[in-house]
Amino acid sequence: MNEQNEQPSDDILADPLANPADEIAALTAERDEYRDKFMRALADAENSRKRAEKDRRDAEQYGGSRLARDLLPVHDALTRALDAAGEEQRAAAALIEGVELTLRELSNVFAKHGIAVITPKPGDKFDPLEHEAMFEAAVPGTVQGEIIQVMDNGFRLHDRLLRPAKVGVSSTPAS
User: Fold this and answer.
1) Residue-by-residue pLDDT tens, the chain, 175 positions
2) Which fold, 63-170?
3) CDD domains under this entry (predicted)?
4) How buried is residue 154: exposed, middle or buried, by Cβ count under 10 Å (0-12/13-18/19+)?
5) Residues 6+ apart with CB under 8 A from 126
6) What is the pTM assigned to this prediction?
7) DSSP H stretches of helix in the chain
């Protein structure tokens, strides 16, 4: 037999980790460190996936908000045209029927794409999340914070406000 094979090498004697328990502890620590890094990377990847999915859903649902905002004045103009036409004009003109059909079609497109009209009525309570106060006036027979006039309807795209309803609000102090 070879004498060299029976003698421990100088490398093993010089290595302070030659003790198997120390070596196992060092390997376990290294394994735990890599496991921690792996778990963090996995969590990071999952968070990125969820964020990308949310961004995709938001883009799908709210991507047309600029177009929707640009169409709101069209809705307003058609509504004002119908409001300005008296009963006499409505009976005589086919133009009014065309405007009504156009407004109805626009409203159907809005509904199909999740755009809801916010239609406050005089007497409703002012809600700063849905209404924009254009003026305040002390009107007898009203309560402070009550809507007294509606200038323009508001619009909501799903759960986001596109445009608040423009209203006049009572400033009559409570009795």
Assistant:
1) 454 455 555 554 455 546 888 899 999 999 999 999 999 999 999 999 999 999 888 887 777 777 778 888 888 888 887 887 777 776 667 777 878 888 888 888 888 888 899 999 999 999 999 999 999 999 888 999 999 999 999 999 888 999 999 999 999 776 5
2) Nucleotide Exchange Factor Grpe; Chain A, domain 2 (2.30.22)
3) GrpE (cd00446)
4) buried
5) 133, 145, 146, 147, 167, 169
6) 0.56
7) 3-6, 10-14, 20-62, 65-84, 87-92, 94-112
